[in-house]
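Hi, here's the filled form for the chain we discussed.

Project: internal
Contact: R.S.
Residues: 104
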Amino acid sequence: MVIMGKGRAYEPETCAGELHATLVRFEGRATAEDLFNQIKRRGHWTDDTIWKEMLSHTINSPSSYHHFPMVSAASKFLFQREDGNYELYDSTWHGQFRNGRRVV
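And the returned structure, exactly as it came back:
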């Protein structure tokens, strides 16, 4: 949806959309702090909203499925590495997950 206003068109962003776009700009990998700080500068979202969006869209977090059941597995695009950094989730590289646990 394109909205016109103030003499220009823009695409409204959701916090999740900005999270995804930021990680793409970081070439697919970033620390949680770097993601948070970039999103904070680019949007109007509260700190709590940003952290919740990061958790709710993390494929390999069981807490994500428990606390955010409304976010489908198909819409989860973050993978949290063991070192705490985030990557864009790629099922061929990271594997398949069910309820936050890797399926063998």
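Let me know if anything looks off before we file it.
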